[in-house]
Write a structure and sequence with these properties.
mainly alpha, 121 residues, 3 helical TM bundles of succinate and fumarate reductases, 76% helix, 4 helices
């Protein structure tokens, strides 16, 4: 009698659980740390907080790269959550696929927009 365990036994959606949960925890921690860092820069800065202050915070190259990394983490975080919602609550396969493709297109468009905003400063 053969036993079919491990990588050969994959059911659609069943193998996402722990990996996606851990991915969302890591991305949430990264976003929280980034938010605290930006808030610390705002609190420790002197003078009025306006466009010049915000542009100054995000003008250095390392901050742009870090911000874009956090945006990618946010997009992954959103993708995992939306994919799980579509898989759990949308039963017709064709509609689920359409919603997942629309979500991917929207998230890619958001990433492109983020690049434009960050590197235009």
């Amino acid at each position: 009698m053969s036993v079919n365990y491990g990588a050969k036994r994959i059911t659609v959606g069943a193998h996402y659980g722990l990996r996606d949960w851990l991915g969302q925890q890591v991305t949430a921690a990264l976003m929280a740390l980034f938010t605290l860092m930006v808030l610390a820069q705002l609190i420790l800065s002197k003078g009025p907080i306006g466009y010049d202050r915000w542009a100054g915070i995000f003008s250095s190259q390392w901050m742009k790269v870090l911000t874009f990394t956090v945006i990618i983490a946010l997009l992954y975080h959103v993708w995992v959550g939306m994919r799980n919602i579509w898989m759990d609550y949308i039963k017709p396969v064709w509609l689920r696929l359409c919603l997942q493709v629309a979500t991917i297109v929207w998230l890619i468009a958001c990433a492109g927009w983020a690049i434009q905003v960050l590197w235009r400063l």
